[in-house]
Amino acid sequence: MAQVHLRDVVKKYGPLEVVHSINLDIADGEFVVLVGPSGCGKSTTLRMVAGLEGISGGEVHIGNRVVNDLPPRERNISMVFQNYALYPHMTVRENLGFSLKIAKQSQADIDKAVDVAAEILSLTPLLDRKPGALSGGQRQRVAMGRAIVRHPEVFLFDEPLSNLDAKLRTQMRVEIKKLHQKLKSTIIYVTHDQVEAMTLADRIVIMRDGHIEQVGTPLDVFENPVNTFVGTFIGSPPMNLLDGVVKGFELEFAGGTRLPVPPGYATQDGQAVTFGVRADNIMPVGHALPRGEHMAEVEMAVDLTEPLGTETLLFATLAGTEVQAKMLNPRPVQSGERMTFQIMLDKCHLFDAETGATLRT
Amino acid sequence: MNRLKLPPWLVLLLPAIIILSAVVLIPLVLSLYSSFTSYRLTRPDSIFNWVGFFNYEKALTDVKFWAAFGRTVLLLTVALNLEMLLGLGLALMVSKVTQGQRLLRTMMMFPMMFSPILVGFQFKFIFNDNVGLVNNALQSLGLTDRAIPWLVDGHLAMFSIIFAEIWTATSVFGILILAGLYAIPRDPLEAAKVDGCTAWQSFRYVTLPFLMPFIYIAMAIRSLDVARAYDIVQIMTNGGPARRTELLWTLIGRTGYVDARMGYANAMGYISIFLAIFFTIYFFKKLTQSRKELGMGA
Ligand SMILES: Nc1ncnc2c1ncn2[C@@H]1O[C@H](COP(=O)(O)OP(=O)(O)O)[C@@H](O)[C@H]1O
Ligand SMILES: [Mg+2]
After folding, report:
1. A-chain residues within 8 Å CB-CB of B210?
2. For chain B, domain boundaries
3. Model pTM?
4. Which whole number is the average pLDDT over B275-290?
5. How far apart are CA A243 and CA A255, in angstroms?
6. Structural domains of chain A in order of their starting residue, each with its CATH number
């Protein structure tokens, strides 16, 4: 078990800097998820921790050691790759035991460790097959088994579920979480899927363009996004954003629509702002959660509906911008029908229109 | 008149059939037939003198034939293994080069661009005991003061021939193994690093199994090449001294054209072809097996 610290870590490919001086402290036994759009530098960061990429600047600490100059095999980590990266010419048993064989453990110890790992991941009946004869989900489990036999200090996962179908992904997500609860080891997990991040993480690290945008618990980053990027990236459907101007205690949007300034935000008269509201907080009257303290009402025409069963997603237009709203206890809605929506203002967000940074006090 | 009507598919295939018979079938049948006669080039009518398996029995009990056979197998084994090791080393080095790799790859092919006859003449000069490059160099460096008889001493002559073979053909292995190195997926190698492998262990347990199919393809190609080796040996030593470097095909050539005993030569030729076929089948078996190991199609 070990903590991991990144101190001003930089990655450059030639003149191109792709990771810009990031800092991150990961506690012993913590499950941290790096999430962000494709190409934002998640894999590069993870691979620097693994030792598969050189570190152009700053320091990576694992446990009490600076590992910048250590090869992967001296870092006591194990990694699960997106494409599984199994050894195709070895059986599942040999794949699982390979690292122990390299570490010159006795055959009896190897067999025991392999059996335990195979048991945990239900791989026992597959031990004598080669990876070519396994399904995607089974290969994924072998890749995880290979990571756990060694009891490393830190587990690194790079988009391990991306190649699985939706159902299997949900199932494996649960297994990974159980595995973490059982092993209690430090995990750094990379994904571009915010649902995976929300469901798995103790703490989420949201990255964009080689920078860390926000670090926090899943609920924290969901409820208090520091900018519009985090607001729209985390949560599904993405947060609705409306550009407006502060007029006294109200916000004025295109076409003259007005809403009160949500509580808890510092604004100046005439300031250009971006108003953020999630679909969960804008619902048609009569199909909504009980009224809260700070409410506002707007009337909108519904353009399109997406029934999801327990709720229906409504696409409507507010002040010239498309917004998504949620309807509880749904009834059929005609396209073009005008409905009155209530907005839960204390769950809404205000961002600076120019920088996108939150205006929360 | 009732014109002969051939089915259209036969008409369409006829040109191919005629050409194939002319260049493959007829020589094949003729040579096979003549191996059962006492055909001598100097007495054309002897081609009708059927002798049954006499030529084959003679070849199988001929010490000279078996000596040449053994020497060919020896050359094949030594040359192929050394070429494989050198080609592997060459490919590994070239694959590590970051700049000018394309140029190096082209340079690697140079030896293959020369006719084996010219290579033979070149090495005949290089290993010449009086004016040769090797002896000159050794003497200038003061390593020896006598003329080493590279092509005259039996063992040294074999060594010189193997050297020339290796010089020409190591690049066959080099190029094919390089292609194999390019084809290796990056992921398992990274997994091996994380699993604790040193560079050597990664090579031994991951890279090498991926390269085996490529090595066996090169082996199959080269075993055919060496099993029919003729030109280099003919030029460098003409099978000498005292038949110490006589290979199967120099022996067969000599028997057929110098001694004019074509029937006997053809019989030896057919036996020799089994050697080539054996090695080809062997390496293709290994190839299939190594591909199966990697989980690539049956
Ligand atoms: N070997 C490389 N050379 C140059 N640029 C690279 C290299 N590897 C990755 N990059 C760039 O670095 C950025 C981050 O890549 P990566 O960490 O793989 O992103 P992701 O967050 O999708 O995992 C991308 O813009 C990518 O193009
Ligand atoms: Mg990635």
Report:
1. 89
2. 28-293
3. 0.83
4. 90
5. 12
6. 4-226 (3.40.50.300), 240-352 (2.40.50.140)
